[in-house]
Amino acid sequence: MADLYEYSNPELVRMLGQRFKDYRLRCNLTQRDVAEQAGLGLTTIHKFENGTAGNISLATFLLLLKVVRQINAMDNVLPELPPSPYLIKEVRQVQRIRHKKQ
After folding, report:
1. Which residues of the chain have pLDDT under 70?
2. H/E element, 75
3. Dihedrals φ, ψ of 94, to 5°?
């Protein structure tokens, strides 16, 4: 796998579009099917897959992942981290203050 840091954002979006097209075809879906299921325009799907979109919103990308049944892959993008001991706040028990009787 190539070092993805070497690519610009538009290049990464183009690569995602190409990869999405492979997933779409393996799901036996047309661009029109995807557009209808995601509630997007056919032009959006076409531009994304052909690399001419330049940019795509995260919300749109998530809709597309759902259509090709890959939304669970989001756990690979940002997996849940174990609790950090540095972020756990100590719970201190409140002590009662006794006032002297006068």
Report:
1. 1, 90-94, 102
2. helix 74-77
3. -75, 130
State pLDDT tens for residues 48-64.
999 998 788 999 999 99
For residues 46 and 34, give the distance between their C-alpha atoms in angstroms, rounded to a whole number. 10
- Average pLDDT score, the chain: 88
- pLDDT at res. 102: 66
Residue type at 49 in one-letter notation: E
List the alpha helices (DSSP H) in 2-57: 9-26, 31-38, 42-50
What lies within 8 Å, CB to CB, of 82 at 6+ separation is none
Task: Please give the single-letter amino acid code of residue 84.
Answer: S
